[in-house]
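Notes to self after the Tuesday call (sharing in case useful).
The group wants a holo model before anyone commits to mutagenesis around the pocket. I volunteered. Ligand is adenosine-5'-triphosphate. Logging inputs and output together so the record is complete.
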Amino acid sequence: MCKVYAIASQKGGVGKTFTAESLGIGLANKGYKVLLIDTDSQGSLTASLGYTEPDDMETTLYTIMANEINDKEYDHNTLGILHQKEGIDLLPCNIEMSGLELTLVSVMSREMVLKRYIDTMTGGRSERHFS
Ligand SMILES: Nc1ncnc2c1ncn2[C@@H]1O[C@H](COP(=O)(O)OP(=O)(O)OP(=O)(O)O)[C@@H](O)[C@H]1O
Ligand SMILES: [Mg+2]
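Result:
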């Protein structure tokens, strides 16, 4: 059974990125398998985990979501996932995501695109927590 946590707030600078990173590393230290998904086009979580130039990265959450939208086949378990020395995995994000936000406006069931990816990664067995 997987647990999926979403950390979101429209308010800026309230500790979303810091909470995601700390929670992820803390859970990994306890022995859990953790995948952090950066969904912010600023790429702050990606940068704070050592990728200081996220906009230079070729494969990111944008790639995954574009594949999902276009029904393109890809290896869910490997594409874009970076293994961190902290014991966590990271799916990075960068400025390309801001373009995708516009594309999504006309995509059917756009609110399900990320869910489809997460459901595949968890085998559909997950508890969801939103904070
Ligand atoms: N619990 C905390 N105690 C002290 N400082 C914190 C805490 N959480 C976050 N901070 C600091 O507050 C600042 C903003 O945090 P963070 O970048 O995580 O916010 P954010 O909500 O992700 O911002 P943005 O909306 O820009 O993405 C950072 O300097 C971070 O180090
Ligand atoms: Mg942030």
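Two things stood out.
The chain has a mean pLDDT of 94.
The chain has one domain: 2-130.
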